[in-house]
## 1
Amino acid sequence: MRLEFQEERLTKKLNILEHKLGQELTLVDEEKMDQEFKYQILKELEVDGRHYAILGESEGNDPDAYIFRVMNHGDDDHRLEHVVDDMEWDQVADALDEMIYFDD
């Protein structure tokens, strides 16, 4: 008798922000309202029922990507929050790696 296990993927690809706002976003620092940053949406995904956006800077030479949690405050009101919890960040990073691996 041979048992096979299929690992259930808990990651789902999304495009909610890109569909509503386009591929480029301008974020305003809430503490310093005069500072704006332009980002490009690289990926959107859902991990364990939470929506995340992976953003990269549109201008400049920064090769880093940033993980934001997308909070829905109504139909057209989406807010981005930095992921500061290390375990949550690792979980999203692992899900992103899985998504990239299985999508290619």
## 2
Amino acid sequence: MLRALSKSHAAAVRILAPRAAVLVETVRGRKSRFDPKAKSKADRIKVPSYSNAKDMFRLNVRFSEYQLLVRAIRFMFTEKRKKRKYEEEKGTLAEERVRKEKEEHRALMAWNDAENLKQRIIREERLKKITEAKELKLREEVLLHQKEQEIYIKEKEMLILQLQEEVKNFITQQNLDERIEEALNNPKSYNYAIDKTGQITKRTAFQ
């Protein structure tokens, strides 16, 4: 109904308007590029959508692989088309070219095998040197560990001998009376002063 009213209104304006006047109909649609921003969107800030860096890297890698595969397939089809056209145009020459290509391929394969053998010898020598270096380092570590173990055992043996010597001076139930009598016969004064070097400078006489 509104559409009909708008049509009738436009027709009435067209009839009643003077001849020299310019008629402009109001049409709802997209605004022009010169119109200002809407008030409801004045404070709107465009935030880019979230994208995961790992996913983007994976997609780029897969897209590169896809482009490479498509390029290779396109090149293969192009080569097949050119080869078919060449064989159709030049039959005997094509056979000669195929024979030369086979010979060239055979020579290149022989060269490739020789290079592979050379590289394998170099690689085996390098791996042998690396293995020998690892074994030498392992032997050095074992010898160093053995020396450290021997030093540790000697230190413990010396400590045991020292303890055995100290045990002889321990007070036991058997020599308790002798030690008491010795302490009474040889009194000692522990009231003394020392200097900065730790030497005893003055001792109080035992009373």
## 3
Amino acid sequence: MKHRIAYSNLPQLFLKARERLMSHFRPILNHFGVTEQQWRILRLLDEYGQLEPRELCEMTQILSSSMAGVLARMEEVDLICRNRIVDDRRRVLVQLAPSGDQLIREIAPLIDLQYKFIEQAFGKPVMADLLNAFEGFIAAEPEVVLHVPLSPGPVVLQTSKAGKAAKAIPLARSDASSARNRKASKQ
């Protein structure tokens, strides 16, 4: 079967690469009873000292609806503490609690050693190239890449009952999947 898209599925490759990479670190996190989401937060707090929840969401790629629960559980087990900002009581800063700091001290040498093993397996140049490529891709301004022009909404061709004339009918986005389903069922 001929592929309809000429390019490799880059997002899927990123997901597979992430999964493969995490398979080397997951046993360490599991040993200490830390989830991947918790580790991403702990690592950032170790790097930056303290951050607001919205900053954590952006930097960890965790949705704010999930972040609230993750932070609450981390606070319950004394990994982090949250403090209101004096000048603006609506805002909160999150930082490592002493036991969270101790956990980082215990995990950090194991994480570094695992990175060293990965670097030995693939070589320093490959690791440096990967880091540079990812950092460059992330840092690139969105305006650098042109975007495909799209019509205001999906369009479906509709034929008359006699099957003679066809006309394009723009659909609201929510109607698009039901129109595709109707069209598929008629075939």
## 4
Amino acid sequence: MPEFTTLAERYLSIWNTTDADTRQSLVRELFTPDATYTDPLGSVRGWSGIDTFIATAQDQFAGLSFRRSGAVDGHHDIARFGWHLGPDGELPIVMGFDVIVTADDRIRGVSGFLDKDPGLIDGPVSRCGEPCGARTTRPARASRARRRRHARRETRGSFR
């Protein structure tokens, strides 16, 4: 069984490596050649796809760094861990967790999940596209009616 904490730390260090040549080398060392990476923002395969995805995220979040939050939990060939993205020494702007699948002490797959990001209103979005439990600035009567409509849609699975 691989040492999951070490793999998670190596993985996050790649996200913080801004030198392209060094990052590409680290991707080749840590990931299998046909590794996959999937999160709500995209899905890629292989060393080149993963490196390009990371480089794009680094451009988007310039000046911010990834750090692990909490312990790494794993069994067999799979592990999960939380992470934060933000300025060093400050509260995170983005939070999430990743699940990694390993093969021969390397990563062959990553599934990423966002728990908090600037695009989420008040947390997860329901099946009908409205934020779950979101508070509105509408009058209480309209808000109650909206919540009832929303609850009926969720119960019936109707999106009329």
